[in-house]
Model the fold of this input.
Amino acid sequence: MRYVDEFRDPALAAALVKEIGAVCARLERGRDTPLTVMEVCGGHTHAIFRYGLEGLLPDLVEFVHGPGCPVCVLPMGRVDDCVAIAERAEVIFATFGDAMRVPGSSKSLLQAKAEGADVRMVYSPLDALALARKNPDREVVFFGLGFETTMPSTALTVLRAAREGTSNFSLFCNHITIIPTLRALLEQPDFGIDGFIGPGHVSMVIGTEPYRFIAEEFGRPLVVAGFEPIDLLQSLLMVLRQMEDGRARIENQYARVVPDAGNPAALAAVQQVYEPRESFEWRGLGSIAGSGVRLREAYAGFDAEKRFALAAAQVADPAQCRCGAVLTGAEKPWACPEFGTGCTPETPLGALMVSSEGSCAAYYQYGGMRGAAA
Amino acid sequence: MRDLIDGVFRAAFADDGALPAAEDQARFDLAALAAKGDRLAFTTDGFVVDPLFFPGGDIGTLAVCGTINDLAVGGAVPVALSCAAIVEEGLPVEVLRRVAASMAQAARAAGVPIATGDTKVVARGACDKLFVTTTGIGVVRAGLDIGIDKARPGDVILVNGLLGDHGAAILNARGDLALETAIESDCAALDGLVAALIASAPGIRMMRDATRGGVAAVLNELAEASRVGVSVRELDLPIRPEVTGFCEILGLDPLYLANEGKLVAVVPAEEADAALAALRAHPLGRGAAAIGRVSDGRPGRVVMETRFGGARVVDMLVGDQLPRIC
Done:
């Protein structure tokens, strides 16, 4: 298939792997610890496992799977709020598919649906708005989730709802932003990541400029990458070359999609509709200042948090779970006592086991090729 | 109303000659059955597909082909089907006529009569438009000993053609994706193909139609039941570019998509060439391919060699595939 096969070309991959090997051989001299590269985005985690990239790389390189899976970092209390909204008789609760299995403290949206809640899977927030128009006697709530990637589309949906006066539509806004979270990670005293593969879809919206502090303040290279295996291998090579040269820059491997200035129209819509929250809770990471957004006052009428009385409770993860340590790259999934026993894709305790972008689910399903508990 | 609906099915299936006009049961001559093989095969399946009509078929063709295939992959020669329909009040009789006609056509094409049936009408909301249950009996060929637990290291794994068409066609036909593609369901009765396959590979170990859960589910069940490893090569998987594209957009994996006219067969290595040739000589097997091997790797584990030599585990799917956010 055109525009896909080129980026999965085995010969090209072999050449890149060879070059990565050569750079690693030089970097390896005098080192006794692995080079850790964090791929921030869950889509990259998924691709790394799907194509078996880890197995192709020298032992020196270790991927650490970052916090960029929106489903994985959703705190339990927020899932509980979703379930509470969805279980109201007047509500049609519309959500992206992979949010449906995330466990809340008592149940997931999928379980709520099985018990009779009207939960609908949609592919776009505009589908939820269409549901609202089609069901004027019901309250349609869209579960807004994701980073800057999905933010513009929910922003445009709210703008359209406002323009059309669709009063039975609202947004339960759980959007989060990646930059404050990266900063919070980097400010941790024991943060041992040597370089970053930067998110592709987020950068398509925000551009490459916002990452500059990572190179300038923290001296780490970051390469914005595409999602095909060749993209990832090439980006890794770019990161390693920076390390070899002793440089730390923000580079853009995904220039075919990501303009350095981002998408001004999308950013304007986001700016118009959302404002930063003081802080937002991330599963496993705790509260991070400025890392979430909410609807601006002008769109308060479409804010599900205002329309429904929500518990907004903070619910702690089970004490034995190691989600936070796995999310920050401090521990590998199989170091968690629950991995593969108490916590499996069928009975997930933590959200990292739910989404195919979550590193635990990825290790459980695709992994085990390099050290994961069998 | 009841008579009208009964009449629809009765009229559609009548030419097959097997539907007894005034009796409550179909009757079969045991000696004639015994001549076909040495064991009776018996299977049933309920069909609740939404939408009822989709490119490449409808609930009727699905109900007939699905049950014929469940018999065929057990090595049985299908003998007869039953059809029970639950109809939601208010369903246009015209819809029912179309479904009955395609059932009759599929049954006739396969030479397997629908020998008995029943119809119930339930109140609006008590079912979704139309549910169809078909039950089938068949006779297992004498001496044939196949089963999901019979694969051995070295065996070759075959499929009879392009994978994932049905699953993609159904998802697309629901209409909420607004993707423009012409993918059609592969819905087909495989009994003829199976007969040719068995004739060419008498040592065949197992067959399974790769319906819900797709080829990945069959491979996992096989690895589990036979206590063997399974390895497949991504490059050898026959998948139509439209289906690949469809899956790329939605974040789905074609290996997990349902098929309704595809089977997975395991044959001893020495019979693999003959089996593949026999499949390819049949109209429903032109795209047949050897996709992998049974290995002495870790029992129960299915490993896929990716396009450029990486490896990944193909696990059993938990629940339905859910499209990813981004």
